[in-house]
Amino acid sequence: MNLPNKLTITRIILVPILILIYMFPYATFGINVPMYHILNADISLVNIVIFIIFAVASLTDYFDGQIARKSKLITTFGKFADPIADKLLINTIFLLLASDGTISIIIPIIMISRDTIVDAIRLVAANKQVVIAAKYL
């Protein structure tokens, strides 16, 4: 398995870690999560950790694409798994933020609907032996 594919798998593995950290019932276990006042906002340590994990996962997306294109390590697995890893990461964050009312549920509905339509187009193309790879943007 090449490095870009390992980075994609790392991104997939980080998604359940994000969910566990975000949804863990800290108060139930008597864990007091520190809050920090940053730029006129109170931000919990959990949110800071989630942001860092999300940023690391996003960087793996950037680097797996760069390395795969530069080193000509583009594989069928990568073409298939990279967009799935991206959707898992982004849609999970949107659903987590909607679950506690931070954002409107409409945002994840729109994003997931769009992803479903794109996936349907990819499936039709795959039926015709055409693989549609993720684009740079």
List descriptors:
137 residues, mainly alpha, two-stranded antiparallel sheet, 4 helices, 2 strands, 68% helix
How do the strands and helices of this protein lay out in sequence?
Layout lengths: L2 H21 L11 E4 L2 E4 H26 L5 H24 L6 H22 L10
Antiparallel strand pairs: 1-2
Helix pairs in contact: 1-2, 1-3, 2-3, 3-4
Oligomeric state: single chain
The Rg value, from CA coordinates, equals 17 Å
Give the class from helix and strand content and strand pairing. mainly alpha
Q: Summarize the helix and strand pattern as letters.
A: HEEHHH
Beta-strand content: 5-15%
Alpha plus pi helix count: 4
Helix content range:
55-70%
Poorly predicted sequence stretches spanning 5 or more consecutive residues: none
Number of beta strands: 2
- Strand sequence of the main sheet, in spatial order? 1-2
Cα(first) to Cα(last) distance is: 24 Å
Please state the average pLDDT score: 90
Shape: globular
Sheet with most strands? 2 strands, antiparallel
Describe this structure in words.
With about 140 residues, the protein is mainly alpha-helical. It contains four helices and two strands; from the N terminus they run H-E-E-H-H-H. A two-stranded antiparallel sheet has the order 1-2. Helix 1 runs antiparallel to helix 2 (about 45-70) and helix 2 (about 45-70) runs antiparallel to helix 3.
